[in-house]
Write a structure and sequence with these properties.
Number of strands: 8
Helix content: 25-40%
Radius of gyration: 29 Å
Shape: globular
Oligomer: single chain
Order of helices and strands: HEEEEHEHEHEEH
Distance between the termini: 86 Å
Amino acid sequence: MTGATMTGPATSGGAPAAGPAPRRRLIMWISLGVAALLAALVAVLASSSQAGQSTSRSQLIGKPAPAVSGPDQSGKTVTVASYRGRWLLVNFAASWCGPCREETPQLIAFADRHTGPGAPAIITIEEDETDLASLRSFLADRHATWPVVDDTNAFVDYGSQGLPESYLVDPLGTIVAKVTGGVNADALDKLIATYSAPGS
């Protein structure tokens, strides 16, 4: 045929074939979907980090808390058993530990909201007796009043692997949770509420 021109490829039915534009739109929509999923994931991770607390597995959970024994700042012997009937946070820390220093305001907030007989309590354990005075001084400067004791055996018995690290002990003396890294006062209260609930 003379004078006839073709403006583009045709399908077997004579209609113009789909060009690259639909594929580009499909890729664009897929990219937007992936971006939305990533944004949701970031939001979840952000909300988790805002809690400021990470619980982890431990062979000690569900078992009696290992013994802790040592003199506090006043020379009085402190033991885990002496807190039976109360919630107790067994906290491992050191003065040279940056994250330990960072978690201190949360420990203080937790202690300040739980006062009086039978209220949840805190014991901080120092592994190195040469650092004990420094840790006590650091906490005293921030008006922390809970016992700080030196007990190397406790680090071994609890299997402490890093600082800071804490164990939440229920009123029966059983470990219910392990917190790796800094604690968060609100998250601790939620843990206590969860394990205090009937049937927990």
